[in-house]
Amino acid sequence: MPVNLPEIDSIELHPVAGVKLGWAQGHIKKPNRKDVLVVEICEGASVAGVFTLNRFCAAPVTLCRKHLAGDKAIRALVVNTGCANAGTGELGMQNAVKTCEAVAELLGTSSEAVLPFSTGVILENLPMDRLLAALPNAVANLTEANWRDAAYAIMTTDVAPKAVSEKLDIGGKPVVVTGISKGAGMIHPNMATMLGYLATDAGIEQELLTEITKEIADLSFNCISVDGDTSTNDSFIVIASGQSEVKFSSREQDGFEQLYQSLLASAQQLAQAIVRDGEGATKFMSVSVHGAKTMAEAKAVGFAIGKSPLVKTAFFASDPNLGRILAAIGYAARECQSLSDLDTNLIDLYLGDVLVAKQGGLAPSYKEEQGQDVMNREEIDMTVKLNRGDVDVTIWTCDFSYEYVRINADYRS
């Protein structure tokens, strides 16, 4: 079961004016489950996206990038689960295009104004007959209140749906931020298989939205790891519908920082929800790295710990074999060349508030029962102090359990 992941209540998911969502049962992989989602976006909205850096990226990712770079304003999203449409060659691209054309016809817009997304099994072709047959049903139930159903419609191996919502008061005017995500396995930047959709009714100029979407992704979805595998389909989309009275064209405007922090916190909550629902996860771990020279250094150390099978299995067993963490810190230089001069004699390691290692060696005050007490918890904080700079970052990860192996051994069955 997910680690302390709260259930979502549709009443608490506030509608975003100008964003309608509709779902359908397409029977893409399994019968009688929500697996197709259509999102209709109002005229005048801004849309930005960040995608996987996997060179074997899926056809929908390639088409999304093309459509976002085009001259058509984005008016719709379409998502299917059960089939990733990745590793499918020219036919995969043709099917992604056909999907956009079908949605465009139903909504009365251009196919270049539609962004397609797929998630599921790689190296299998989309069952286009089932997908196309489901789209009219999804469009028929478009409504601004469908966020909870939408969260279910994008799930694959997820145990639970993931959503977040907040109402803001910016200069006396109401603003809404609501979003959903999916992901449980094959999670590691860039990006961390995941899909994330975040919407606000505030107006944000396109260039500014594109800029902050990348920043937000780097501090949220690009700070999580379940298993160290970067998917072919990862996508994060931010929509600013512009339907509220609050509009921004510059970061310097009053109220923008408040909206930015809300979008960032919402994205981080959605990203953390993916880790909490990591395949087979029993523990949620936060790895805070302090005192790096650069963000690249900080993330290299954080992810060396966060994706280490030895570290993750030790945490599953509640075994305070904490030398594995030091070993992971030591080989982080493989991921970041500037760490080649890392002075391990400067490093301090904390497990919770317990000092484990001081100046590169076992802290004289440390007792194993202290470490055991922390390791027995479901949520565990680790802090690494490199003491070589002033850059900090937090990475979120989970343990490796027997269940992770079972889920991925049976994934295609």
Keywords, separated by commas or semicolons:
5-stranded mixed sheet, 7-stranded mixed sheet, alpha/beta, single chain, 413 residues, 31% helix
Structural description of this entry:
The chain has helices at 59-69, 89-107, 128-140, 147-153, 206-218, 256-276, 295-306, 309-316, 323-330, 368-375, 402-409, and strands at 19-24, 36-41, 46-51, 76-83, 114-121, 162-170, 173-182, 195-200, 203-204, 224-225, 235-240, 247-248, 284-292, 348-351, 354-358, 361-362, 379-385, 391-398. It is an alpha/beta fold. It is globular. Helix 1 (59-69) packs across helix 2 (89-107), helix 2 runs parallel beside helix 3 (128-140) and helix 7 packs across helix 9. A hairpin with a 2-residue loop joins strand 6 and strand 7.
Distance between the termini: 21 Å
The largest pleated sheet is described as: 7 strands, mixed
Which percent range fits the helix content? Answer: 25-40%
- Elements, N to C (H/E): EEEHEHEHHEEEEHEEEHEHHHEEEHEEH
Number of helices: 11
Spatial strand order of the main sheet:
10-18-13-17-14-15-16
Oligomeric state as shown: single chain
**Cα Rg:** 22 Å
Q: Enumerate the spans where pLDDT stays under 50 for 5 or more consecutive residues.
A: none
The outline comes out as globular
Mean pLDDT: 93
Structural class: alpha/beta
What topology emerges from the helices and strands here?
Blueprint: E1 19-24, E2 36-41, E3 46-51, H1 59-69, E4 76-83, H2 89-107, E5 114-121, H3 128-140, H4 147-153, E6 162-170, E7 173-182, E8 195-200, E9 203-204, H5 206-218, E10 224-225, E11 235-240, E12 247-248, H6 256-276, E13 284-292, H7 295-306, H8 309-316, H9 323-330, E14 348-351, E15 354-358, E16 361-362, H10 368-375, E17 379-385, E18 391-398, H11 402-409
Parallel strand pairs: 4-5, 8-11, 9-12, 10-18, 13-17
Antiparallel strand pairs: 1-2, 2-4, 3-11, 6-7, 7-8, 13-18, 14-15, 14-17, 15-16
Helix pairs in contact: 1-2, 2-3, 7-9
